[in-house]
Amino acid sequence: MKRIIWSVAVASVFTISCKNNELKKAENAQQGVVKSNITDDELLDRVQKDALKYFWEYAEPHSMLGRERYHEDDIYPDNDKHVITTGGAGFGLATILVGVERGFILRKEAVKRLTHMMDFLEKSDRYKGAWSHWINGETGKTVPFGKKDNGGDLVETAFLTSGILMVREYFKNGNTEEKALSQKCDQLWKGIQWNWYTKDGQKVLYWHWSPEYQWEMNFPLEGYNECLITYILAASSPTYPIDAETYYKGWTRNGTYLTDKKQYGLPMYVKHNYAEEYGGPLFWAQYSYIGLDPTNLSDKLIENYFNLNKNHILIDYQYCIENPKQWKGYGPNYWGLTASYSRNKDGSVGYNAHFPQNDHGVITPTAALSSFPYSPKESMDFLRFIYIQKPEFIGSAGPYDATSIHYNNWYTPRYLAIDQGTIAPMIENYRTGFLWKLFMNAPEIKKGLEKLSFQSPKYGIK
C-alpha cells in the first residue's frame, strides 16, 4: 500500500535511460492510436480491457497474483519482479471479475486461475490470519516492506479480502469447480483474526503486527484516509469481529474527525489526515469503495458517503483547473492527483503522494479514471483526451502510471498494481454497479454495516 509520510516519503528512486523512453514513445504512438469518433462505451471497454492485462497477461507467473510493479523497460532496480502486493492483488481479483462479466476472458479460465491464487494464499505466510504487504510470488514467504514491517499488514489484507469476498459471492451458486473456489475464499476470510489487531483490546485497529517486532510499528488506523474498509470487514467478520465502539472511538476519533470546512464551496465533511485544506490523494475515495457502495450510505456521523467522495474528487479537479503553480497542460481534460510513480527534480523516476498540497506537475491517470462514479463527465473528458490526443501515454496495460505534459510530455513506462487495479472496477461500478452489488449483498457485510449503524436504502440496510 501507499504509506504516506507527509513530508513526502519516497519509496524508491531510480533512473530511466532517455533512449528507452524515446523508443517506447515511438512504439506506443503507433500501438495506442484511438480514432476520435470512438464512442464512450467503446472507449470504456478499451481502457477496462487494457487495465485487465496487468493482472491477466502480466501477473506474477507462479502465484498468478498481481505483482507489485510491471515495468515495460524491464528495469527492476530492487530485483523485485517476483514480488506480489496483497492490496493490489485484491484489486486484481475485482478486475478479473469485471473481465469475466464483460466477456473479456473466459469464465472457465478465470475459475482455474482464481483457484490457483486462493491455494497460493492459503499456503503463504500469515500473521493471525493477515497477510504481509509484500509476498514472494515464488515461495509465499513474506518480503519485508520495511525493517519492522515484516509481519501482518491489516490494511493490505482488507483490500485483498474485499476482492476475495467478491469472488466468493460471484461463484457461490455456480458449478462444482466454482462452488469449490467459493468455499476456498470463505475459509480464507474466516481465518483472519481482525480483533487481534486491536492490540490487547484497545478501541482502535492497528495497521501492523509482527512476531519479531510485535507492535513496534505502532500505527493506529484513525480517519480519515483510505482505511475505512478495514473497519467494515473487521466488524463483519463472523469469526473474529470488532465491536461498534472500536469503529467510533478508533476510526472516527470519537467523532472529532468531522469538519465544517469547505473548499471551492464544497463541504469536505471530514478532516483528511495531514491534508485538511484540499483533501488527500484521490485513492482515498477509491480503495475502500471497490466493493463498498457509498451511494446514499450513511452512519451516525456521515449523512452520505457518496457526497463525501464526490466533493473530494471535485475539489482536486477544481484545484487542477485553478492550477496555482501554473503547470503546463493542467485543465479540464488533464487532471487528477494521487500517489504514484513520479518525476524527481533531476528527471529520474521516484514515488510520491501527489495531492494539492504536494503537487509536482505529475498527473496520474488512475486518479481521474478511478473516479468515474463520482465525476463521470470530468473523467470521460480525461479518458478521451489521454487516449486520443496523448497516445504516447498509453502502454501495453493501459495508461502509464505517471505523466507530465509540463515536462515535455514525460512519462514512465511502468505500472503499479494499486494504481492499475482500481481502474476497471471503479469504471464498472459506474457503468453497472456490478462489484458494489456483489459486496454489499454479502450476508456478513450487511450484518456488519448494521452493527456499525450504517444505513443504505439501496440494499435494505437499516
UniProtKB/TrEMBL annotation:
It comes from the Bacteria. Residues 218-442 form the Glycoamylase-like domain. InterPro entries: Glycoamylase-like_cons_dom (IPR019282), UCP028431 (IPR016883). This is Glycoamylase-like domain-containing protein. It comes from Chryseobacterium fistulae. The lineage of its organism: Bacteria, Pseudomonadati, Bacteroidota, Flavobacteriia, Flavobacteriales.
